[in-house]
Structures are given as structure tokens and as C-alpha cells.
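Title: Request for sanity check on AB hydrolase-1 domain-containing protein prediction

Description:
We are preparing a figure and want to confirm that the structure record we downloaded matches what your pipeline produces today. Could someone re-run it with the sequence below and paste the raw C-alpha cells into this thread? We only need the C-alpha cell string, no images.
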Amino acid sequence: MLRKRTAAQDEHGGNPKVDINKAAESNEGGNAETENGLWSRVTSVGKVVLLVIFIPPFLNYASLQREALVLIPKGGLSVDIGLGQKINLMCKGRGQPVVMLDAPTGMASDVWFHIQEELSQLTKVCTYDRVGLGFSKRAMQNETTGMEKVWGLSTTGRMVDDLHRLIKAAEIATPFVLVGSELGTLNGRFYSHIHDSEVSDLVLIDPIPEDVFEDEQWRQYWYTHLVPSLQAMQFSAATGLNRMLIILGLMEPAIKGETVSEDMIQRQKYYLSNPAHQSSAVDEHYFLNESASQVREISKYKPLSSRTSVSMITGNSFDEQLPAHLNQLVAKLQKKFLEQLYPSAKHIRVHGAGRRMIYKRPSAISKHLWKMIAQKQSKQQSQ
């Protein structure tokens, strides 16, 4: 029996090779379309990644340029201290003795806000941003005369040199009351030993004992945990991530409350988003060991004048960010250095306060400083 030829067979002459070739061509076309679709998706993802990488830093940089102009503290001064360097100085109130406040490690002068506001009702109170922090932009090294070769940048020796030139340039009346917290206590001690005639009273709030860096566990915590975390914060600021976290409410300023102005809240956000500020904060922590060594040496060769009274203020609560044994180590060394170097010093313990007391329990510090200043003023008036 004969079969009828199909239309397909008539068209190709019944050649099976033609059918195979056509199927192959169809498969190749499908593969090409699949590859094109895959490449298109990869390109789209690449564009998104590039936007994520480059857009946030660019927007952050543009915002920082604008904020640097509008968030400068009202009433503050940009004081030229020489060497191409200017320092942001804020003084409030009138009277003597002047109180000079030096902030904790890596922090701008805003941290003293509550204390400065209260004490300025009694006398003149000044705060300043150390070089590189806040609104004291670090000068280019080629604009200096080489002082960094004597004292390394971001070390106590250089900071004290800057502070001394600031006192002279701003014509701050001496002798004054010098108050420091953490790194500020190292600066205060160094300054008081070198320029003893300029400091009537030295107040150390939660001081850093210079011998703490001789402990291996402390060094390990400081350089393998704390400093790397600050370096990560600096990188996050440089990439614009900090600003995004602030916008999302996942990162908040340290100083807040009903009495804190909106300008100050915005300044703190500016600091968190500013990689230059964060870089200087990293440097101050990284070189803290060197700063402590400088203070140790100056304490040996230039004892503090008996005319300068010393007070130490500490809390009885440990720092929750420090392991318990390191908290105990710091407390032990604080007591030791006070007994050895300043045996006549007054030690004030604030119940329920910790390392952040200057902005979490400021009234306790203001109370002591107010009493000290009032007594000095009363004594001056009676003479």
C-alpha cells in the first residue's frame, strides 16, 4: 500500500537532514536569547551596584559641604593659632576664673553643652574643638613649620602646644580652671605641669591612668577591638552609610533631650557623617598610648606646682562596653596614680555615674565645679 506524501515532505523533498538543521538553528536562537537576557540582568545589577557604591558618598560629600557652613555654632570663634591652623572656640558667660573644658577622646566640644550652659551663669566658660575634630579643620602638613616632628599629630604633646597657643591668641585670662575628661585629663595634666603658672585648678573627670597600656589585656582590647571598630565607623562615614543609618533612625546622636537644640542635634549627625572628624577620632584613640607615655615622662621631670589644686571625679558604675576585669584595672590604676602623683588631691565619687557622666549626669559635675568657682570668687572678693 502506498502512503501519501505530507506537505512537509513535499516542501523539503523528504530530507531528514533539513529537519535536523532547522531544529539546531532553533536551539541556537533560543540559547542566544537566553544569553542576551542573562547579560541584560547582569548589566542591570551592575548598574545598581555602581549606584549604591558611588551615589551615597557623593550625596554625603555634598551635604557635608553645605552643613559645614550652616551648622557652625553661633557665637563661636575660629581662632588662628599660627602654623596655618585655626581652632573653633566657644566661650559663654563672664567673670573669673575662666573655666576651660577639654573633651573626651575623639569627641567634639558639644559634649560639654549642659555643663557649659550651667556654669556660664557664674563665670566665663570656654570649650574648643581639638585639631581635626568638630569645626577645627586640620591644616595641611605642608602649611605648618614642622612642630609635628617634635610632638606627633593627635598626641597630647601637640594638643597641649595647640591649646597654649589658643589661650594666648584668644587672650584667655590666667590662671584658669582646666577641666578634662579621658584624653582631656592627659592634656590637662601635661598642660598643668608645663605651664603651671597658668592653671589654678586641675579637674580630672574619669582620667586615663598612663600605666594602663602596660597591661597586655588592655592593649589587646584597645588595638584589636576598639580601634578597629572606630576605623569601621570612619569607613562607614566615608561611604555615606552613616548618613543612611541616621536617616533610617538606626544611628542616633549621643547628646539629646528636651534642652538640646535642633542645631546641636544636627551638628552631632554632621560629625557622625563626616569622615574627617571620624579619622581624627581614630587617630586620637590609636595614639593614646603615646600620649600616655608623654604624660608619664613629663610627670617625672616636671612635678606639678603646689599652687595648683587637683580634683578627680569618677563614677561608681563601670563602663558597660568594657569587660569587667578591665573596668577593675582602670579603677585600680586611677587610685594608684592619684595617691602617687597627687596625694593631696580631692577624690569625688558620683553615685550611679559612669564614663559618660559629662553628658549623661552633667549636673553632678556642674555641682562640684560651681562650688569650687564660687569659693574662689568669694576668696578673691574678700582680698
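Thanks, this matches our download. The first strand starts at residue 77 and ends at 82.
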